[in-house]
Amino acid sequence: MSASLRFTRRVWKSFIDNKGHDVQCFPNLVINRAVPGTVDFSLKIEPYNLNRVGTVHGGLIMSLTDTLGSLAVASKGHYMTGVSTDIGASFVRPSGRTGDTLHARATITAMGRSLAYTRVDFTNAAGELVAYGHHTKYVGKSSSDPNNVKFSEDGERVIEGNDVD
Description:
22% of the residues lie in helices and 35% in strands. It has three helices and eight strands; from the N terminus they run ααββαββββββ.
């Protein structure tokens, strides 16, 4: 398992351990792959993820855009992933029903000293784009967190900081 994937899963565990919004809305989120700047996820859709017409609620897509954008920042070695300054989503087609699996890829489109810009593409089991989100984060203060690490370019190993399993 790559260092970037281990680290991103560690940050996700800290979200879950906080017992806040994420664990209530999508405790079964799976991080499948992480390289610096890109993370792939899957989520089995549960009844509590639906709107009243029986398809994925748009609020779930918005919440996932927020969380997955944050985890894309984590994939670059940031333990604290900053705060949101802007977020939005576009809904292309229904995203699924109970029992379906929603897939997502979160990518950092740009990251500087103060701001990180992410995009999250959501696809169904057939690989069709069902929604996409964008998320801007202020990362200025989180850039100096002592738990941050630096990865090799491919994300396979930690070259600075502590590599914790």
